[in-house]
């Protein structure tokens, strides 16, 4: 499929995508908005029984309720966020970059060990052109046009920002058709919608349906197990510890949603009135949450991102000892030695990238196990992650993704 650009679209736009990754959710377009991508004649036959027919019109509903119609199955797709490959790998383990002609540069920076493993398994991953980082405003429409895309995949937070900057109008004028996905703002609502949309876009509907069935099964099991809990322990989510001063968190969104669904009382819901914000160490000490969960990654290995405070090292290639030692190191943050949760063994670390991944359902299981251990004694999230990783990715889940202070 080859998108025909309008006369306005054939001009080269050098306007930068000055988009700040919004932490707050904006109002989406009214459901039923339709975009049509005109296509040249000629079609590509489906390569497997699981692929959608490539010679028929397809209509996709994205997380904003927009309906986007293509005359035939797109063949050239740009992932506006490189971490979109977390989802495309689920759809096509053998070639997660099939049809991807360019992608955001965030994957290499945000999940370097994942990226290295990916390149080792798929050398093509290291050769896919990078368009820059939409959140940093260094993506141009001119650059997007140069890749001659049939479709662009953008995230909900970037979409919210683009509405206020007028960038959506520029994309429309350039003839760039886009769909919106979301694994970050409201994962408990939008994960399956996003996977369905991507399954249709990439012609992998069966794979999308299979994953969504698995995802829904786990989420419903968690809901059932905490449905009758007598109380919900106060739980604090320390977001990206080490990248910012103490202590950034999320309320009624992202991993905060998952704390609530897993039977916890997300502390941030009572303190901040935006999706993300900061809680001071003094306020945290005053509140004394029963459980503290810090998200972590490999911040120390990113030389251009000096640590504001200590961090917890988690992810592919990280040993449990290193993760536990660095988790304890967070308590060197001034004042946090006065918190009760660590001394009571209720201080944990979780791999940060679950916040933007369809594998979020496994983190949800772990949250349930930490918050209500008696309800999840038979559940092993680590084993579940290794199993899912082996089925959806060509490399093993060697590393540490969940850790406790004890």
TrEMBL record:
The keyword Amino-acid biosynthesis does not apply. Residues 1-25 form the signal peptide. Keywords: Signal. Residues 76-379 form the Fe/B12 periplasmic-binding domain. Gene3D superfamilies: Nitrogenase molybdenum iron protein domain. The keyword Protease does not apply. Residues 29-50 are annotated as: Disordered. InterPro entries: ABC_Transporter_SBP, ABC_transptr_periplasmic_BD. Belongs to the bacterial solute-binding protein 8 family. PANTHER family: MOLYBDATE-BINDING PROTEIN MOLA, VITAMIN B12-BINDING PROTEIN. This is ABC transporter substrate-binding protein.
């Amino acid at each position: 499929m080859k998108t025909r650009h309008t006369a306005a679209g054939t001009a080269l736009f050098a306007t930068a995508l000055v988009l700040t990754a919004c932490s707050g959710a904006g109002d989406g377009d009214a459901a039923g908005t339709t975009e049509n991508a005109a296509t040249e004649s000629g079609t590509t036959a489906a390569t497997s029984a699981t692929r959608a027919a490539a010679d028929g019109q397809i209509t996709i509903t994205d997380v904003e309720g927009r309906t986007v119609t293509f005359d035939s199955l797109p063949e050239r797709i740009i992932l506006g966020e490189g971490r979109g490959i977390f989802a495309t790998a689920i759809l096509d383990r053998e070639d997660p970059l099939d049809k991807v002609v360019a992608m955001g540069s965030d994957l290499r920076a945000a999940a370097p060990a994942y990226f290295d493993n990916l390149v080792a398994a798929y050398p093509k991953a290291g050769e896919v052109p990078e368009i820059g980082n939409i959140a940093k405003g260094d993506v141009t429409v001119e650059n997007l046009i140069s890749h001659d895309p049939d479709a662009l995949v953008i995230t909900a937070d970037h979409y919210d920002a683009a509405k206020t900057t007028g960038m959506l109008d520029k994309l429309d004028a350039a003839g760039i058709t886009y769909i919106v996905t979301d694994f970050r703002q409201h994962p408990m609502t939008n994960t399956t919608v996003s996977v369905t949309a991507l399954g249709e876009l990439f012609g992998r509907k069966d794979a999308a349906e299979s994953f969504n069935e698995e995802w829904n099964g786990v989420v419903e099991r968690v809901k059932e197990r905490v449905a009758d809990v007598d109380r919900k322990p106060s739980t604090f989510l320390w977001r990206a510890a080490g990248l910012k001063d103490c202590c950034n968190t999320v309320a009624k969104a992202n991993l905060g949603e998952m704390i609530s669904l897993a039977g916890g009382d997300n502390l941030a819901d009572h303190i901040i009135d935006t999706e993300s914000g900061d809680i001071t160490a003094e306020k945290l000490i005053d509140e004394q949450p029963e459980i503290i969960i810090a998200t972590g990654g490999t911040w120390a290995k990113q030389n251009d991102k000096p640590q504001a405070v200590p961090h917890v090292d988690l992810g592919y290639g990280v040993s449990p000892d290193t993760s536990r030692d660095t988790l304890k190191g967070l308590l060197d943050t001034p004042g946090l030695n006065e918190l009760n949760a660590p001394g009571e063994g209720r201080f944990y670390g979780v791999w940060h990238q679950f916040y933007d991944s369809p594998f979020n359902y496994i983190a949800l299981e772990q949250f349930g196990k930490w918050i209500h251990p008696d309800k999840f004694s038979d559940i092993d999230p680590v084993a579940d992650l290794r199993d899912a990783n082996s089925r959806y990715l060509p490399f093993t889940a060697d590393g540490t993704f969940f850790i406790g202070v004890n």
